[in-house]
Amino acid sequence: MNFDKELDARGLNCPLPILKTKKTLAEITTGQVLKVISTDPGSVKDMQAFAKQTGNELVATNESGGEYVFFMRKH
14, 16, 28, 58: which is the annotated catalytic residue? Predict the structure, then answer.
């Protein structure tokens, strides 16, 4: 999937992946896609809730080898 910016949140535990996602989304423009990589299993539910609360679109979620990858489109 194409993305405009990548955030490496590996090794960070809740709530840091969400806080860093929020900060990084503020740096990109509407319609751009942020790729977030996390190793925190709790980030799956957190990202879904964050997208719902903020109106940003969680385009895709993947899990592979203990890493969770999220693609979020800024609205």
Answer: 14
